[in-house]
């Protein structure tokens, strides 16, 4: 039977007051902070669909399309709530129960699912965002120590269970991951196997399998793409080895949900996965970012005047991301909220990384700039939007970025796929899904202005 995965994105933001004007605080992903704010969009039906998905799912979209907030929401719904001693609390007495029930969120419309699944799973959320700072193998180990410290800290209650500890992994070893001084001296082997030990402990403590959420799985890849780094291969191999342990521990893990920007294959991520890629022909694409109905709702809620004018302007600047084979156009979540909550002047809110000059240089290579100029003129180009990056593909892209030379047509094709994953390109209107290349265009004025500004005049 074919598995389907209806992925509903929950976008979470806080509205705060500054100088008597509402602004969006894009830093919080906590449902408790945002559920009653004007910018909250209820898409909690994601929760019902997660358990019907394949065991390992990779969800991709550009920055600021709601990936991290969704993983945070999944965690809050499914995770077991315990006291300081690790004893499970009665579900109906928990903050999580009240957040969903008292606010009558959509998932409450499925009472059996709600009662059967809320608070029933040990959940481990591993956030790879700190790996953005990787520059050497040693710096990668340092950042992994931070990742492990934060991950282990959330389960410190495990030290209260005397039945968990063995000669293979005792309480003192567990505390090494949490104590700041000892954490800094974790050895390479401890870093590599630490998460598997944590999964084992959770499995034994709760006597049920664990749900794993891995956020920003490719954060280190974006950094390495722009570096002439002799440690690149060993860094990627090490992260893959950690992922192998984390994602393939089927004796402890029931479900894995991974988020990232790039669609990567098992040679990179360490596990085969079902890819629900950005704007692909599957129902999960409907709920990446905002759709038109949600944008209209936000405009009304935020009491913007000139409703039609505002909607048309937002569509022109921040919409245009077309889902293949479906009559749906999406909007950049971060861009829409920045415009509605912070500023009445439309401009580019796209986040720029620290390697912008190298990116600009690659964009201006003659073989690439000609294609970009054609796209900016309103034409289309064919891109393999179903492409999953391999380690060899990443090496090819890295060589293009660093050498500043196009050595093959494959390198140009990969760069265009990379632009697609970053949100600079979108399937042309009425494009049907297909394996292989499809015509793409520049989606909106925000992207058009940014690409144009990076081309040499």
Keywords summarizing the entry:
457 residues, 13 strands, AAA-ATPase-like domain-containing protein, Rossmann fold, single chain, signal, Arc Repressor Mutant, subunit A, alpha/beta
Describe this structure in words.
This protein is an alpha/beta fold. It folds into three domains: 54-79 and 121-271, Rossmann fold; 290-342; 359-455, Arc Repressor Mutant, subunit A (Orthogonal Bundle), CATH 1.10.10. Helix content is 44%, strand content 12%. It has helices spanning 31-34, 46-50, 67-78, 95-102, 111-117, 137-153, 171-178, 180-183, 188-206, 219-225, 232-247, 266-269, 292-301, 307-318, 333-342, 356-363, 366-376, 391-403, 409-422, 445-454; strands spanning 14-18, 21-25, 56-60, 123-127, 210-215, 253-260, 274-276, 290-291, 321-322, 329-331, 381-384, 426-427, 437-441. The strands form four sheets. It has a five-stranded parallel β-sheet. Strands 8-10-9 form a three-stranded antiparallel β-sheet. Strands 11-13-12 form a three-stranded antiparallel β-sheet, covered by helices on one side. Helix 9 runs parallel beside helix 11.
Q: What's the CATH topology name of the largest domain? A: Rossmann fold
Give the name of the CATH architecture of the largest domain. Answer: 3-Layer(aba) Sandwich
**Computed structural class:** alpha/beta
Give unreliable regions as ranges.
Answer: 1-23
End-to-end CA span: 54 Å
Task: Tell how many strands the DSSP assignment holds.
Answer: 13
Number of helices: 20
Number of domains: 3
Helix content: 40-55%
Major β-sheet profile:
5 strands, parallel
How much is the radius of gyration in Å?
22 Å
Q: Please state the average pLDDT score.
A: 86
Strand order of the largest sheet: 4-5-6-3-7
Protein name: AAA-ATPase-like domain-containing protein
Pfam family, one: AAA-ATPase_like
Keywords: Signal
InterPro entries: AAA-ATPase-like_dom
């Amino acid at each position: 039977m074919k598995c389907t995965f209806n992925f509903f994105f929950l976008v979470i933001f806080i509205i705060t007051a500054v100088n008597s004007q509402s602004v969006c605080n894009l830093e919080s992903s906590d449902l408790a902070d945002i559920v009653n704010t004007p910018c909250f969009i209820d898409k909690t039906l994601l929760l019902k669909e997660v358990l019907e998905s394949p065991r390992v799912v990779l969800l991709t979209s550009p920055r600021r399309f709601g990936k991290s907030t969704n993983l945070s929401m999944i965690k809050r719904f499914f995770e077991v709530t315990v006291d300081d001693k690790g004893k499970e609390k009665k579900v109906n007495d928990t903050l999580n129960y009240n957040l969903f029930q008292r606010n009558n969120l959509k998932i409450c419309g499925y009472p059996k699912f709600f009662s059967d699944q809320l608070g029933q799973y040990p959940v481990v959320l591993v956030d790879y965002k700190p790996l953005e700072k990787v520059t050497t193998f040693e710096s990668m180990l340092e950042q992994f120590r931070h990742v492990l410290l934060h991950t282990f800290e959330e389960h410190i209650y495990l030290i209260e269970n005397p039945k968990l500890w063995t000669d293979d992994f005792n309480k003192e070893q567990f505390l090494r991951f949490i104590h700041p001084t000892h954490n800094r001296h974790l050895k390479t082997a401890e870093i590599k196997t630490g998460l598997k030990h944590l999964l084992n402990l959770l499995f034994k403590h709760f006597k049920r399998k664990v749900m794993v959420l891995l956020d920003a799985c490719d954060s280190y890849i974006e950094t390495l793409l722009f570096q002439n780094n002799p440690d690149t291969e060993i860094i990627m191999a090490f992260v893959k080895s950690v992922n192998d342990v984390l994602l393939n521990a089927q004796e402890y893990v029931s479900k894995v949900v991974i988020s990232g920007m790039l669609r990567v294959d098992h040679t990179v991520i360490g596990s085969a996965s079902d890819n629900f890629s950005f704007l692909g022909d599957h129902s999960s694409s409907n709920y990446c970012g905002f759709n038109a109905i949600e944008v209209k709702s936000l405009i009304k809620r935020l009491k913007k005047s000139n409703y039609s004018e505002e909607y048309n302007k937002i569509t022109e600047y921040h919409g245009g991301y077309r889902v293949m084979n479906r009559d749906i156009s999406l909007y950049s979540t971060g861009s829409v909220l920045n415009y509605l909550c912070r500023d009445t002047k439309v401009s580019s809110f796209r986040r720029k990384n620290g390697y912008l000059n190298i990116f600009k240089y690659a964009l201006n290579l003659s073989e690439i700039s000609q294609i970009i100029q054609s796209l900016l003129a309103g034409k289309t180009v064919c891109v393999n939007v179903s492409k999953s990056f391999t380690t060899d593909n990443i090496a090819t892209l890295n060589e293009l970025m660093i050498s500043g030379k196009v050595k093959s047509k494959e390198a140009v094709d990969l760069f265009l796929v990379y632009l697609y994953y970053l949100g600079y390109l979108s399937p042309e209107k009425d494009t049907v899904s297909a394996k292989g290349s499809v015509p793409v265009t520049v989606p909106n004025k925000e992207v058009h202005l940014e690409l144009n500004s990076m081309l040499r005049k």
